[in-house]
Amino acid sequence: MHVVNVNKDVMKANNELAHSNKKLLIKNRVFAMNIMGAIGSGKTTLIEEAINALKDRYRIAVIAGDVVAEMDASRFEKLGVRTVAANTGRECHLDAKLVERSMENIDLEDTDILFIENVGNLICPVDYKLGENVRVVVVSVSEGDDTVLKHPMIFRTSDLAIVNKVDISEAVSADPSKMKADIEKLNPSIPVLLTSRNDRISIDRWIEYIESYLE
Amino acid sequence: MHVVNVNKDVMKANNELAHSNKKLLIKNRVFAMNIMGAIGSGKTTLIEEAINALKDRYRIAVIAGDVVAEMDASRFEKLGVRTVAANTGRECHLDAKLVERSMENIDLEDTDILFIENVGNLICPVDYKLGENVRVVVVSVSEGDDTVLKHPMIFRTSDLAIVNKVDISEAVSADPSKMKADIEKLNPSIPVLLTSRNDRISIDRWIEYIESYLE
Ligand SMILES: Nc1nc2c(ncn2[C@@H]2O[C@H](COP(=O)(O)OP(=O)(O)OP(=O)(O)O)[C@@H](O)[C@H]2O)c(=O)[nH]1
Ligand SMILES: Nc1nc2c(ncn2[C@@H]2O[C@H](COP(=O)(O)OP(=O)(O)OP(=O)(O)O)[C@@H](O)[C@H]2O)c(=O)[nH]1
Ligand SMILES: [Mg+2]
Ligand SMILES: [Mg+2]
Ligand SMILES: [Zn+2]
Ligand SMILES: [Zn+2]
Fold first, then answer.
1. A GO molecular-function term, please (chains A, B) (predicted)?
2. Which residue of A152, A153, B33, B115 has the fewest C-beta atoms within 10 A of its own C-beta?
């Protein structure tokens, strides 16, 4: 009871901040993606692929969310894009406040695409809007092909779902087309991509998805 | 600030309940393990293996934590052990209250081993004691071999660490011995097991670990 009341206050404050983040992003014509997903599902890898494919044509920045580490931030920095490490400390998700503070270190006027990599978690990021234009959820076959039905909310509230690492489906006894079907059952209008970093065509589809939002 | 104060109240209430759970478990001579770990890292599979190996000699019960689903609970039920599905609703971790309520549906006098499978998450379960005797953390190579250093707290506060799915290390470009070394750096006294469900000897070591607590 106690907890629920406070959560309402926290959620309200977060929603308001997310709204002001969104206004700032729109004013600066920045396209912002919140990349959520399971621990180690391939979020950083997919963002790296997109950066490599798009950085000659678009000005890209990244906010790399993590509890304490800065390993993902260093991976992005190596690609020569503006990167801010956003450490949550003990929290298992990014929130709008942390994104607001991170954006203070990014020249938004000089940015076309902002990737925000969330903390590996399929539960709490659902509740915390950040001000993003598009929410992406990434799972991999390796989590097991029951992962989708175990975490319905994140698939219901995302704009794109990616089932990654399809190259190792057999080794982990998972059926990616069952996962796709489960996602479509939960959210009939969501596009679903099956990807593997070893399959160039699948990665190209992910990049085309991003480009479909840019002129 | 607001959040921190309340969290203190929540944590205090949880610690008190965990303590009373622990007393109840000790009084009934139940050995309880809190199995934490990454999403899809193999928690259910490892508990299933242990149940199969131990159920003829010990009376086993399971609390299967999940946000909404009951898939893991059905897997345990199939093995003929007392199973309670503990759904957290929106929470990303089990807490002592939910375990207390779940234990009301278990005849503790008739139980030697209680497995508590936590929600797939490497962050929040750290803060929530349940009353368990032993805390186990499971990661798999598939999350990437930087996962340990990204989540130091759970390795510092666990009694056993398992690096699972070592059979697919190459396919996901992960080095399990780096992961073991990282864990031992964070927590020099913790035993670390490298396991694969395809390697019987590695599974036997996990079962021997459990038996070392039983007479
Ligand atoms: N086989 C295979 N492995 C992959 C693929 N994509 C990523 N990986 C591996 O999966 C591991 C995790 O990849 P990351 O991109 O770091 O995943 P992440 O979701 O950013 O991880 P966190 O930020 O730690 O939650 C790494 O060891 C990668 O090499 C893929 O398509 N196939
Ligand atoms: N290759 C390989 N796959 C494994 C191993 N252990 C489990 N798996 C696969 O990994 C997936 C997840 O296994 P689970 O035991 O359900 O994992 P979990 O940690 O209980 O998952 P959640 O409860 O959903 O977080 C399944 O598809 C298993 O078949 C292993 O040692 N090697
Ligand atoms: Mg990452
Ligand atoms: Mg499980
Ligand atoms: Zn959270
Ligand atoms: Zn939590």
1. nickel cation binding
2. A153
